Amino acid sequence: MARKSKSNLSELYLEENKDQIYENALAEVQSFELPLGTTLRSVYDDQPNAHQRFMEKLDACIRNHDREIEKMCNFHHQGFVDAITELLKVRADAEKLKVQVTDTNRRLQDAGKEVIAQTEEIIRCRVQQRNITTVVEKLRLCLPVLEMYSKLKEQMNVKRYYSALKTMEQLEHLYLPRVSQYRFCQIMIENLPKLREEIKEISMSDLKDFLESIRKHSDRIGETAMKQAQQQKTFSTALQKQNNVNYGRNMHLGRSRILESKNDITLKRTFEDDDEHEEEVLTAQDLVDFSPVYRCLHIYSVLGDGEIFENYYRKQRRKQARLVLQPQSSMHETVEGYRRYFSQIVGFFVVEDHILHVTQGLVTRTYTDELWNMALSKIIAVLRTHSSYCSDPDLVLELKNLIVVFADTLQGYGFPVNRLFDLLFEIRDQYNETLLKKWSGLFRDIFEADNYSPIPVANEEEYKIVISKFPFQDPELDKQSFPKKLPMSQSVPQIYIQVKEFIYASLKFSESLHRSSTEIDDMLRKSTNLLLTRTLSSCLQNLIKKPHIGLTELVQIIINTTHLEQACKYLEDFISNITNISQVTVHTARLYGLSTFKDARHAAEGEIYTKLNQKIDEFIQIADYDWTMSESDGRASGYLMDLINFLRSTFQVFTHLPGKVAQTACMSACQHLSTSLMQMLLDSELKQISMGAIQQFNLDVIQCELFASSEPVPGFQGDTLQLAFIDLRQLLDLFMVWDWSTYLADYGQATSKYLRVNPGTALTLLEKVHRGMKDSSKKNNIFAQFRKNDRDKQKLIETVVKQLRSLVNGMSQHA
């Protein structure tokens, strides 16, 4: 029972629960916010009969709503009927009102048509009046803009670009902002940048034309500037020389004559220059129109591109500088090439200096200094290279003058030129080298043309002519009557004159170098020393070594060098006179002529000794001895007598030589003759000598000794000259006397009679004599070997040979 009641309760609970679910589902269906899919799914998915139950619940709910609607309609129905009745009553009144309003509107419209027309006319007139006033006001604003734009166009047409830029600036900042809303103003605003670019292009084109123009005219500008600088310097120098025209009248006659001629020429040039100065002086501005530069600079400055313009100008000028500094390959051939090169450079920097002083900031002093330093380095390198090709001293001198004018011109414009003057010192060395080469040829020509004989003078006039060329003084010669002969040959005064000409030529280069007289004096002395010690000395050495120069010529050369050496002090005085430097008060360099001519004399003396020996050798070579003769001829050989006669005549020519030179030559000749005769005896090809040949040879040596004792050259003391033949004499005496016992006994003693006879020499000659004796005995008698005397002599010779060999061996071991 209890179980049954419990089950009924659970069924009841389930029924109530299901009803609640349906109620919730209906509430969800009536709601417009929630989706129906989930609700309907929950109803259909619950139980098999849930759909039917839900539909029943839904029908019940619909019926309840219908009842509520019906109740509400019944409640408001009477009010609705009353409202419809009232609306029908108002309908008739509304129709009447509509007709009245339409009639009134028609009558009002008819009455207001004329008013409306008049009002519209008034409105239209007032709008026109307002528009006219506005147009007048706007035209007053636009007319200045149009006038300025028209002015701009006119300025562009007449190429007044700087004014045009100012007009543009006024348009942009003052006029156009007032009327910027108009389209023509926008067109103007768009055109102004184009006009600026056009002005920039036109001004840049003018600048390029200007740069091309100054590139073409730079040589003319430079030539004019250099000419003006040279005229100013010449004028100042001429005035100074005119004030001192009488200075140095008492100097050397030749110098006075040259100074007077130079003064006359200088004054003449000065007067000519004065006439030229009276003409209008042209400047760079007269030759070139600089307005394109100013115009372009102002234009770019106004446009705010001044820095761009400066960089472009400097870049282009640097390129032109490099072109100007590039020389022509053949520039070194003529002075015109150098002049054109310098003129272009001067013209370039004159233009830069003008731009520096008339513009602000386009070029600066720092820029010009930097450009000048670059150019100066290039110029120095070019001049070093091209001047090294110059072999003509006149061209080098003209180059130096051009460099001086070039330096003075640029120095006048404020450019430092010290390095150019330093370069001139290098070129001076090269100039001296070209002078030395030229004078070397002159010296060779003088030596070739000389006859190497004393200068004959027939009368006083000829004597004075020679003395005017060369400072010769000889009281003894002055006492002699004409005609007479000067000791030196014709080349001496010619050499002296050429040395002075060299000094003048060297002085020409030293002028205008801004150096003191002391420095010029020192330079002249150094260059003259080079001429003497190198050029003249070399020419003398080559002359002495020439094959055609004989002993007579060599003697004359020694005499010439002696007189040239004595003339060196006059050359020093000559240099002091032309430089106005005293040799007493200033430590000046001395000329090295003493050593130069001493060396030449020593070379000539050595050549005399050599040629004498060669002549002796020539006579020795024609000697024809019969080394197997049984007896001598009783007289000296012919070749030797000819040799002695030659030596006598030769030494007579040596009378004008210094005593020691003649004595040395004579002693050298005798010693060489003695040595040659000794070598003839000891010749390895000579195998045997007879005693007859020894006797003949002894006769020849006696003639040599007689020649030595006859004092062919004065000044020898006693028998000094005969000692040259002492070795031969003792050797021949040993064989002629056959005094071997004495020789062997006294050998090595200071008192030995045959002290100068060497054992080896004696052994060699004895072996040759021994072979000669054997050969002679065989020819004379086949039984000579059985003679007792011959056998004893043979044994003696063999014994002496053994002893001599032992002496020779002892000497070699000792050595």
From TrEMBL:
Gene Ontology CC annotation, any one: exocyst
Source superkingdom: Eukaryota
Signal peptide residue numbers: none
GO biological process: Golgi to plasma membrane transport; intracellular protein transport; vesicle tethering involved in exocytosis
InterPro entries (alphabetical): EXOC6/Sec15 (IPR007225), EXOC6/Sec15_C (IPR046361), EXOC6/Sec15_C_dom1 (IPR042045), EXOC6_Sec15_N (IPR048359), EXOC6PINT-1/Sec15/Tip20_C_dom2 (IPR042044)
Function field: Component of the exocyst complex involved in the docking of exocytic vesicles with fusion sites on the plasma membrane.
Name of the protein: Exocyst complex component
Species whose genome carries this gene: Falco tinnunculus
Upper lineage: Eukaryota, Metazoa, Chordata, Craniata, Vertebrata
